[in-house]
Amino acid sequence: MAEQLVDTFGRVHRDLRISVTDRCNYRCTYCMPPEGLEWLPRSELLTFEEIERLARLLVERFGVGSIRLTGGEPTVRARLAKLVEMLVPLGTDLALTTNGATLGLLAEDLANAGLRRINISIDSLRADRFREFTLRDDLHRVLDGVDAALAAGLDPVKVNVVVMRGQNDDELLDFAEFGRRKGVEVRFIEYMPLDAEEGWRAGSVVGLAEITERIGEVFPFEAHRQGSEPASRFRYLDGKGFFGVVASVTQSFCGSCDRIRLTADGQFRNCLFGLEEYDLRGPLRSGAGDDELAEIVRGAVGDKWAGHSIGKVHFIRPARSMSQIGG
Ligand code: SAM
Ligand code: SF4
After folding, report:
1. What percent of the chain shows pLDDT beyond 70?
2. pLDDT at 92 over 70
3. Distance 98 CA to ligand 2 centre (A)
4. Ligand 2 centre from 52 Cα, in Å?
5. Best residue among 31, 96, 163, 188 to mutate for probing ligand 1, ranked by most atoms within 8 Å of CB
6. Is the pLDDT of residue 152 over 80?
7. Is this structure's pTM higher than 0.85?
8. Which of 18, 70, 88, 165 lies at a CB distance of 3.0 to 4.6 Å from 97, suitable for a disulfide?
9. Each residue of 58-76: b (16+ CB within 10 Å) or e?
10. How sure is the predictor about 225, in pLDDT bands with cuts at 50, 70 and 90?
């Protein structure tokens, strides 16, 4: 049996997020400034072979059971399906989070390469708002992307919505209706202070209690059994599917967090909000063996703190924004 990655609080880590690039073709207001960020030089990005080696180590040595590819925007990395093909033999639950803009072209290749699960981020179903949020006139393309993902047999297809007060919280019911009609699970995400421009305010967060109350007034639901995933899940009573809320701000799930992260430039992170990164790329490129890399990972997880304290005076933002860490 594989060794477990346990921290000092007894949390066992099995869920790995891999950012495959820090680049993105969108400029979501809550994530990236309009002018973009300074992208990492290509030589600093892990190659697919390096990603596969580190993922293999984490799976075979430490029993990691699920991998999600993210970014930046993962689909801007050329030949993403090739990476999927390389990771499938590891036998994990393999998923992708994307803005969906190019799924019309890529969904089938990704599914053929062995991808099963996908999350597509959409923050407004109104074309003008979508353009305002992302600086791209792409709503139709992303909606086609949802259809392409469904047609390619990806299952489940989920839609991620970051809910921001006064900006898109009047669309909660539209999204609920969209999810029910399409047969996709909408996951409402509480707005987190990881925007590049540091514009986040506590008042911009629409919390789980309010989201569920407003949906329940129109579409009655019941709480669904919670797995290890951070989203609270709800089942519509009329049988038309599920929705979820990722309440990272109002009901931090740090106590049961089993997530670890690898950034596009090969830094290992033990927490989205962590202030420290642990370099794996340097040792990897200078010929470190698996034992040496495993020791760095073990140490990094051992250092993991109890959790973030968003909204408290002692909260410190991490130096990198969501798109650079990998959401
Ligand atoms: N580009 C891909 C996408 O947009 O889905 C993957 C990377 S993105 C950073 C991953 C997820 O993080 C997306 O669902 C996005 O909406 C979410 N996200 C980004 N910034 C956020 C913030 N400040 N608060 C909450 N969620 C955020
Ligand atoms: Fe790009 Fe995703 Fe960030 Fe939007 S949320 S700017 S699509 S990385």
Report:
1. 93
2. yes
3. 8
4. 24
5. 31
6. yes
7. yes
8. 70
9. bbebbebbbbbbbbbbbbb
10. confident
Residue (of 290, 291, 272, 266) closest to 51 by Cα position: 266
- The atom number, within ligand 2, closest to the CA of 24 reads 1
pLDDT at residue 313 greater than cutoff 70: no
Both tokens assigned to 229:
């995933």
The closest-lying atom of ligand 2 relative to the alpha carbon of residue 31 is 3
Cβ atoms within 10 Å of 140's Cβ, excluding its own: 11
The per-residue pLDDT for 29 is: 86
| Residue 32 confidence (pLDDT) | 87
In this structure, the chain runs to a length of 327
